[in-house]
Fold this sequence. Notes:
A: eight-stranded mixed beta sheet, globular, B: D-amino Acid Aminotransferase, Chain A, domain 1, six-stranded antiparallel beta sheet, five-stranded antiparallel beta sheet
Amino acid sequence: MVEWRDEWRPKKRYHSYVLSYEDLQAYPCWYLDSVHCIPPWTPLFAWSWTHHQRYGDLWAAETMGFPTCKGTDWREVDGCAYMSPILVTDKTEQKERAVRFKEHLKPFIEDYDSVWSGVVRELMAKYQEFKAFDVAYAPNSALYDHFDSVFRFNNRVWGLHSWIMYTLSGLYALFEDICKERIGIDDTSPVWHKMIRGFDNKNLEVDRLLWNLYKHAVELGVDGVIKNNPLDEIIPALMETKKGDRWLNGENGFQGFLNEHGWRMPRMMEFNCKAWIEDPSPAFSFIRQYIDKSGQFEMDIRRKEIVNERKEAEQEILSRFPDSQREWIKRLMGVAQKAGIFSEGHNYYFEHMSHSLMRRAGLACVKKMVDKGLVEDPEDFVFLLPDEIRKNIIPLCLDYRPLISERKAYYNEYYQILNRPILIGKLADDHGRAMEYMAATKDDVMMKITVGVEAVASVDFKADLYGNPGAPGIGQGTVRIISSEEDIPNIKSGDILVATTTYSSWTPVFPLLEGVILDSGASLSHAAIVGREYNIPVVIQTKNATKKLKNGQKVRVDGSRGAVWVLSE
Amino acid sequence: MAGDLIRWFKDINKKHVQHVGKKCVSLAELTRAGIQVPPGFALTIKANERMMYKTGIGEKVSQYLGRFEKGSLKNYSDSEKAGNHILQMMKGIKLPEDMRSELFKSYEKLCEVSDIPDVPVSVRSSGPVSHPGLFDTYLNVQGQAELEQKVVACWASVFAPRAIANRAQQGRPVEKEYIGVVILQMVNARSAGVLFSVNPITGNLNEIVIEGSWGLGESVVQASVAPDRFTIDKRTLEVKEKIINEKLREVILTSQGTVVEPVSLERQAISCINDDEIRELVRLAKIVEIHYGGIPQDVEWAISADYTFPGNVFFLQTRSVVGVKWESKYLDKSAGKSPADHIADLMVERLIG
């Protein structure tokens, strides 16, 4: 029997996926998902993650028949998510699952583009339907249905998400294994980095549109208005002039951009911040940063060269395999390349869209309660659970103010606790065995995207900090440590971004950067992918760059060698 | 046309097998992979054909062999008779004038490069199909006259009795076989031997096996001494097994040619290469294997007595290992399957294989 330790025990058990005593006994270990839930989530988001994301994960692993793992189980401890893989260890069962798994893989290998466009069609059709629903004027019964559909659809979103992600990461890792064994390169090699870059994805498209909006503002002479007004007064100030109005509402205008691409959360994995479409301040911040930087869109400068380099790298890799093997190697390389495009571009269709629409639905329901004086602020919806919202949306008689103030106090308390135990359960004190257990899932999402592999410094470059190469090249600039999206507007052109990890909502700031240094990361992490596309050097897996480096230091980043030198304090 | 008759290694790549033969291409590819090989050049297969035609000897050989009944050359007695006769016919044949002057010009250039007048070279056959040991190799050839003579001898060796019999048995035309010839600066080898980038006995791909002895590689290749034998872990470079044999003889290079000498007593029972040299050989072999798409290689190497480490490490030849059953998790099983089928199988194997 494993007994509770103080730092393990949740302070409240407010839904059934809060870590329980039975969970502690039944699973060998629970692992903190520090990539997504530090700082801790609001109760509603934590609920959604342990329900929808959990469902999607298990659904995907079961549907595809992943041979070694039935997916990952999830529990909440005070706003943080803990995961535990459900291993399949029985050989016969593994073999049975493998039959299904093989059939599942084939369409991905034969024609991934069709698989992907099918998924995008399905998602976008649903989102269009949700967006078209008028939350302000709908009767409560329709609002109930809408809320229900939007939240339920999140199961499907996460299901498709894991379904593609597990498959592509696995194929990516297989290709890397083959290259490692046969031709001696891996995902830290420069030729590998060249091979997987030079592709567009949806998030980069948004960056480009933002850059075009900045250019358009300069052409119309309204860039001063954007630069010199407080963020929340920019729109009224623009509306005062004809040109400003044209920039906002004309062809290729800002409003059109927001309607289409503004379903975007400043913190991707949360409900408690306004989407761009509600408050475009983050978009204005990025445009302001572009005004300061000016010049050409960073990605265009070496784009052609990068694409050509990629084609050369593809040929280089292919040429090192025997003729008779090239057909399938080429096919596999093609799918491996898709892993990078998906890993970065998918957030647009999955997290950003669905979370901003869930937020919209939740806000609208709770707004009704605010109108009746049952809740103080619509933003308090993040302290209620879906059932509590459903229970009240038609009767509108339950006074939730005491419940909300209790949850809020609970949230404010746990939000301060950032130093969470990494492992909970039987194996908590045996890091090695816990990691072995996790590795037995053979889950490449962990290895290639979220967690990565520890860097081993093999050559002494007399550097101050070592990590793994994430994106090639050398850059020099000023250290800017970023701990949350709130720090993003402080970034200036020529900075080196230093962070534990980065998120897709930070992508538009990359054109300003000279380099990126991460504590964590792997070759399919956000910063590595975007860095490669923008031709910015990225060093990953430094473990403690955010602690060792200080804001304002001048550093040199070598993304080909995985090394960082401090040039001056 | 330049390069029609003679080519330097830097102007050769793997597309030129039909042009200069396998051994030349292997040396050229080693150079491209960044491995140090002795400087040298090649006489092309076409040069062989030209020589046979221009001198008229090709015609004569053809006529002579026409006397034999079809199939009779498969027999030892007839091929022996025919072979020895043709070798006699070809003795003393001179190269056509233009070919000779080009050969001598290239040889002079080699002397310049190595800064040795009448630099000693080896003259080796290089056929488009490899026939290890079938054709002649000459070591320590010095000066223009001897070079010309050995080149002709090398080309004549395709009519040695065993070579004629071999063609007859395989049903190929007996009256002609054209090969390239490699002219390679001799390495004054302190130690030499062979290296397999797969364990040739167990087929283990994670092990490299090196065999070596004192002096020129001839002693190991011809198995006249029991060589030292090292088994190395390919990934960690750790030497897992070291067998030091008693090496009684060595082949050494003298101004009079190669001679077999007894090994001095104090060197008989010590390792012919040190750990640094072992690691360097392994490192280079891994580069070569990667260069050849991960196909295990059988390498001839030499450590020169004239230079210091690591500039003293030379590769003389590499070819794909044959006759060893080695397993690749990835490449072997693709035959007869669609790409998707094969890849899906590999995924499954990777997870539960």
